[in-house]
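#random but structural
TW: two for the price of one
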Amino acid sequence: MKSSWLSTLIALPSLLSTVHSLQIKTIPDPALNLNQLGRIGIAGDFDAISFYEYEGQDERSLLPSGSHSIFARHPDGGFVPLVSSDASISAACTYDFRNGTTAVVVGGNFTSLGSVPARGIALFDPNSRNVTSLPGLNGKVSALLCDRDVIYVGGEFRADNASTNVNAMTWDHRNGWRELPFEGFNGAVKSIIKSDNQTIVFGGAFTGVGKGGNTTTGGSDSGPDEDATKRMQIINLQGANVGSERATTEPGFGDASKIICSERDGPGETWLMEDGAYGALTATTKFGFVPKLLRLRNTKIGGRSTTEFRFTALPLTGILNMTYIDPETKEERSCESRCPLRDDNEEWQEFKFVNNIGMDAFRIDISGFKGPGGGLSGLEIYSEQSYTFADSDINAPRCKKLASPSNSTTEGVWTPQPKNFVDSNYLSVELTESQIQAGTHSVTFLPEIRKDGGFNVLMFTPGCINDGTCQRRGKVEIEAQLTEGGEPLRTIVSQTNDFDKFDVLFSNEKVDAPSGDFRPSVKLSPAKDQSGFSSLIFVAHKVRFDSTSSSEDSGLNGIYEYNPSVKDAKNSDSVITTSGSKLSQRAKVETLALQGSNIFVGGQFSSNKDSEGYNSIFEVQDNGARTLKDNGLNGNVLAILAQGDVIYLGGNFTNTQVNNKALNRVAAFNTKDSTWSALGDGLNGPVTDIVSFKLNVTDKEETAIAFSGAFTEIRGSGGKNAAAVGGLAVWIPSKNGWLSHIDSKALVQNGSISAMVNYDTKDLFIGSLPSTAEFAWGAVELEHDDDLDLQPYALARANGNRNQKRAIAQKTLNGVVNGAFYNKNDKNLTILAGRFTAQGANGVVHSLAIIDGNDGDKLSGLGDELGSNGTFYALHVPDSSDKLFAGGSIQGTIGDSDVAGLIIWDVEKKALAEVQPSALQGNNVLVHEILSQPGTENVFIGGSFDSAGSLSCPGVCIYDYKSSQWNRPASGLSGSVSAMKWVDKTHLLVAGNMTANETTTYLAIYDTNGKWNAFPGKSSDLPGPVKAMCLESDKADTIFVTGNSTQGETYLMKWTGKEWKDFGSGLGKGSVINHIQVLPVSESHDANDLLKTSHVLLAMGSLSIGSTTASAALFDGKTWTPFLLAAKSSGNTGYLAKLFSENEQTFKGNGKKLAKGLVILIALAISLALVFLLVLAGILASYIRRRQEGYEPAPQGARSAYEKQADLQDRLPPSDLFSSIGPGGMRREPSPML
């Protein structure tokens, strides 16, 4: 395989960077100045929302899902995703190249990493974020060991173009993929470690070395005399499209398809060619296959027979090499373009294909014949691969008399999907949550098993990119009944893979052949523990059973020691290898851990009949295997972590095997004194992974042990209540307690950590972890007093309700679509509208919810009056009214009145208004916008409708809420309106897809004098109808519009007052914009011709910006920067629909916000200035008064000292002092002296 790696190996040095400090680039604050807007809300369809804080942050990492990512830790403790896969990552290690570069190697069951196609394994450079695929494997990688410059890889996989699994190989950057000397294992490899004596130890579900068996139906393979058809599966050609060239016209002999099910040479069962002509037959199947055996039966009708033929694979058009046994010499011979067919043999003649070539069609050319012409009376093709298809039409041919042919059955209605991008037809179904919970849909595969034995069970899943279902794929539960009377086996498979994949469901399991009423079966059904959607898509393709009985019987039992320094490493009788003999048959070793020189082995096994105490866990020392205290555990051990003298274990156990030490899925074992310790009272579900890392706890860095698995609760103990978690629990050894009990607000409580590696002194975490997202459903408040912050509203789903799937696949929006604030009469109400079902204080609320901030955020709203199928798009409360207008795609009956498109809610009475508007009429009535005309009681309604009651008013209609009457603004407009904006008191700007005065337009202007006009800018310059718009000033001279082009792509343009300007290609293909708005900023950006330096443009929806998906982004005229990320709990990306605010956006006084201290100083200065002015005014008034009254000097005659003293003692009352400042400035009579 070395040559196939040349291009990849040459490219590696340029893709990987020399190790240097891993940097996480923080995104600067956008410096938005939102003071003018007051309270701000954000509406959409999401379960988590976050600011875009770090470069490379992505929506898919906000919430745990079926996919995994590689995370770094930010200094603030948050997890920063570096790259994401489309499925799980099971293992990781760091690989050092000899040129000084280092890469992280990751393995799992993914088909892409960071959007780079990569099957099961890839290299990742954390510095450059480059991903390098390592093509050559097909399947799942479960274990990795980086040992110097060699990577040991284990799992459930095969090399490309191989028909059997090898399950263990090595990779290095000089040679690429290489087989191990012992050629792998016949079962899965789950764990690989290096012992203290430099040997490599493999653990898994294998019983022998050598490649996994290919005797897929379980028949024996005793030698060349064995009938090959008993150990292979017949290919179903009965449903193939069979044609021919130069066929005879003689009745009963011209149809080539008749030889597929033929039992004899005769009319209706034989195909003949024209006399003297060379002919051919072609067959096209509904599935791909790899043929191993061709069987032909000659004809003798009328002295005819075929003597020579060739077989061509289609669509490759390659003639295949075959071998056959010469009947005379009994020797094997080969042929290619001229393969002989004996004319004296009426039985089947067999030809084996030399190479494994995949195909879905073939051609057989007859190039030699005897007698009048050639022909055939039978055709069969066999494969070593035993598939069972979900589409029962392509399973074993019904015309063949097989004892237990492969078959499938379905429950519920599944839709067949053609093999446009995969190798065979498959089935799919789209189900709502209620249908999933009902368990009414399943596909059951019934394989063809001919003999009891060990098998690997594989399931194949088509990739979601080709059929465009990635945002809506779910996960399925598998239940396999493989033995008669045995317990069924169960597992979960995620179907979110980008590209085609297979999962090994069960490895080296015993499978019984059919007997009586029993048949082995594999049942696929949608998993019920899925949320955050209203419908998901599930697919069912095919399963395969690979026998493990044909590999070399090495006497292995789940554990094997390989010494790289020993040339002949195929047989091993080491202490480690022979420790497997202590275990029950078909032991499954799940995990290995090295502590000093001792190896701890955990898994699914018990002691054999000659041993005791080897239950799920044991230890291998230099002198042999040793049981642990209390004879081990009473359930499977799935993960082990060694930390000093303590090993931590996780799995599905609850107690020790004897003495009943209660543990509950997690335990600590001290190797010094051989004692078991419980971790609190344990967890309520199984643990699959354990890793150790450093964590800052109560301002001190501590060692933390993270347990991941299928659990939801840390059990209460020691006076601590049970703590809800989401599959991740962290134990702090120094505190002897769980992190959730120590710090209830701990960040790390949801998701999973499957592995951890150290890269350049920094820990990288692999798994599914929440970022610093705010967990909120559908709407949040954007706080902006100091720093920007997101706060969830008190909106909770009603039991059993989930939001709709991603909106880009919908004609309507879902979740919360719009919102409003109501603060009249000292109320504090937040109103949310859209398409949802929430839990209210007094029952379920449908699509219109009101949160009362003065009453503990109690939620009320619209009940069952209009059902649950409507969607509200528009909300409006007129300034002089306490009535809420709510419009959308709604209809129903309120009291005795039919309503459609618009309803009125009485806010004060907390109920629907007694008088409702007459129903809007038209096809698919929908209201998009509601606005009041400034200074009037007229409410303008815009949308898609023809009339209001009997009044014709297409697109825009006026409702007078005082008189409860509909009015038409003016004639001349028709079509659909999506947005409206008052540009002044008498002119309304309207957007949509309209006709104004017989002119097609996407923008129109209404003059309240009673006239419609098309917008001055040509609509022909816009790519399509306008969906949303906003202004950059309080006039209509600068307008931004967005919509979809006639080709379906989103556009964004600006009206400059003279022409339309395109924003260019800053947003990626497939972006969807629901809302745009110009926002002021406190820090100017570079000048450009699209936006003022003090403004940015906010776009909300589902946006693609480079390699990042975002639900909101900011544009400064040159660059798009993600602003908000939203995600669904199903793992899909979310979307945002609207930013709504307490105050309307204007463009006056958007100055920078002043600090509070400066505001106080300014206020003080103003007050002092006012006092000064008042005093000055008093002095001036007094001066003027004296000038008007005249000035009389005081007498200058001699006065006695007593008189002088009396004058000085006279007091002037206050009324005299200020009387001249009063009205008219007139003097008043003096008050009596006090």
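TW: number two ↓
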Amino acid sequence: MLNHPSPPTRKCLLLSLLLLVCACNKATCFLGEGKKIWKQANTDHFNQSFFHDTFPSGFLWGSGTSAFQTEGAWDKEGKGPSIWDHYIHTTVRNNLSTETADVASDSYARWEEDVEALKYLGVTSYSFSLSWPRLFPDGNATGLPNPAAVEHYNRLIERLLEKKIEPIITLYHWDLPQLLQELYGGWKNDTLVGLFEQYAAFCFHAFGSRVRYWLTMHNPYLVAVQGYGTGLHAPGETGGPAGSLTVAHNLIRAHAKAWHTYNTHFRPAQKGKVSIVLGSHWVEPQRGAATAANVELCQQSIEAVLGWFANPIFGDGDYPLSLKIKYGALLPRFSPEEKLWVQRTADFFALSFGPNNLRLGRSVVQYGQTVTPDLRRILGWIKLEYGDPSVLVTEGGWFTEASVGKEDTVVIYLTKRFINQVLQAIKLDAVQVIGYSAWSLVDGFEWNYGFSVRRGLFYIDFSQSNRPRTPKTSAQYYRRVISANGFPSDETANDIKGRFPCEFHWGIADSTLQVHSYPFSPQFTDPQVYSWNVTGDGSLRPVPGMKMHNRRAQCTDYLAIWGHLRLFASTGASHYRFALNWSLLLPQGDLSNVNTEALRYYRCVLTELKKLNLKPVVILYYPTHRAPNLGIPGPLHASGGWLNYSTVDAFQKYAGLCYQQLGSWVTYWITINEPNRLVDFYFSGKEKHQAAHNLLLAHAKAWRLYEREHFSQQRALVSLALHADWAKPANPFLDSHTAAAQRFLLFELGRFLDPLLGTSYEEKHSNVDYPQEMKAYLKERARVMGHPGSPLSSFTKAEREELRGSLSFIALNHFTTRLVSPYPRTQSNSQQKEAPDHGCLILTDPTWSSSSLGQAVVPWGLRKLLNWVSQRYGGALPIIVTASGVDDQAPVEDKLRQHFLRSYLQEALKARQLDKVNLQGFYVWKLQDGHAPQFGLFTSTDHKSKAKASIAVYNKIITLGGFPEDETMQTCRLSELYEPCSVCAWMFKNKAILVFGGCILITAVMLATLVIFVIHTKTNQTKVRGRGVKRRRKREGVPVCLCPHLKC
């Protein structure tokens, strides 16, 4: 029977319960409301994906270790064996049987180096565990302790305090003395509840005067489930649910007993706080559907892990109802007295949130829902479920494979994510988080994974006997966060005020324009004449024997054009970018078969745009990125496509046809859209470079043709458009990552722009060729791989001349920013995917907001990109962002796209106004959705082409000309667009006189007209009367002789 106070009668117990409920404070009145977290609308997630602010003063920044994983010295200076020592010495574990923790990180001997590592980080707390079998080899704390162990922990605590680092001590982190396992069966036996209380009392007495924070045990869920249920952890017992439930029950009671011991005997003098570290995963409703059923399953999933232990301690003193239903009689019961005794036996909530629980969440307690590493949400759940307790995150972090070594780039971003989620929980959700401990301080023995995975901020080479501690890049990052006390706002992120110039392109970009050549009216195909049966049934009936010639369709008869351009015009945009269909216009790839109807349709589109005073930007070749033809005519593709030089000549002839037939209406031409993406669809590196080479030559030939034969008359500008995402070094602490990001940009952009423009670092157009850095890298790569030479083709002298300067403006399609790192080299080359030619690996930052298709929304990347291009190629040529957008699944209220437009255009304005980039246009991708909501500003025709909310945002920015101080409409004077007109100026100045004179002139003209009309009328009347007299005289004249004339 547990040794704790019990009320004398059940009546007293009920009275106590009633008083407890009635006297609940603000916190406890809100117990059990965790389900609300899934019902809360997750609005404006793009603004909260990363939060800039600092942590409260006094926030506990820390790191942590556990004794078994790091101390080593497993049998030195009187230490007894633990269940983990026994387990790893006797159990074969997935080829790890030779790995032990006998030395581990050797922190027992090198604890001073650990303290120096803490000092390097700048932490204010250190969470470590005491080794029960080191202090008491037989586990019995009623005997004498091991003096060497006591002295070791005293030295460590004193040094920490000397360095102004708060010790946070865990009494039990899984290393139960082996003798207690052998004598009692470990935690299955409730005898350990009393033994643990005695051990805890000794620790409180020996060290408590210098310790403010105590943790009784670490993540008891894993002890119960992995240690005694599945057998994956020591002691390796496979008791199933029954064994796990019994062990968990004893662990909870052991914790409560230790807490009561401290509360009664030590708190008055030491004034410390005691809690228990509970681990958890997090789940979101399946497919984001927060139905009542899914919410209930999510709640059950968290209750099955965190609630199992937290509900008795922080809740009502009992297990969650869902566990009682699930396990029935298997689940041990708390007596009414025990419920009161266990309840509220923690002074703060200590949370472990790491890979161990998340792995289990995905495999054991998922409940059909989606497991996600969202620390903010679990903190919010704790607040709602357990009455807003103070929370200490005692374990936060991730792991890497041992082969990663010191360059743990992925851990940097997961650390960033977890810490920022804590900040959001504090600032946005008002959760009382008092500290965060990054796990772990140094690499150690990772339980059943041995040394195959690493979790330390400091790298340890376990092959060296002195176990040197080397900070990983994640340690450098964590140090930077601690130094800044979080994530203070970046001044460059602040919005600015200003306007774009009047001639700025406010555009919308589309892909290939679909040709609907069938006119709307039947008059173009039906020659029959009809009569209308008005008095009968009102039907139209053909008139027999009568046919009419069909009228040729007019541009206004194509309602598809009218409807499409009506949508476009309603946005307020001034420029429309669309593509022609090469395969449709020239099915055979040459001029032998020209589709005149398609050509006429495009001409109609252009003429209608002109009527609306809208400017077209026309793409000649828009690769489809789909088999079989990639958007080029079938015969050309069959003959090798862009690997065959004949396609270059064919493209020039196609361009000439378009210039001749459509050029009168086009002010901007784009020869090829995103050739840098097209080459990705070729298999080998050699093919990719050959295709890129020919695409460059095709563009240059088309540009030169326009310059020679059409520019003098049509005056359009010609370019090619490149996909241009910004590249950020994934690891800011490694030069190799900086080099990789630069190399990525050269392969993506420099490969196409350098041969056309040269660079601003050289004499203008003096050396048109592929980037020298790119050439050197490919040459060295070929040497290392044993290839005969670089895969890059060389330009002839004539080709160089044709390429030089063949670009009228720089067109960039920008959507996102990429994290770039060098492609990792592993020993298993046979299984490794061949690295791309640029040798870069693309990553993403999980703290960046992203769309449902995974596109990261990174506004500042646009400004970085524009500056890079401007600096490399000079500011003479205008730069136009010819496509930019984001997918948004919202049918109408597309908040993510609204945020995208505002923020990206803000960065565009900064680039132009602050950085003096010659930016002259921004085109939103795209006008209308296909079948499902994605990038369109309008819904699909299937959904009646409804305008989305982002159109109003874009239209307002266009109307204001940007982001002016006073938000008044931008008025562009004629002098900004055209040559000054002196006559127009005089007319405007004397408009009152002109109006008055006009009125007089109109009046005079009207009077003159009236006089002329009167005179003309009287003259006509006089003439009419004269003709009437003559007619009467004829009728009334001399008699006529009717007899024959007689000769005399």
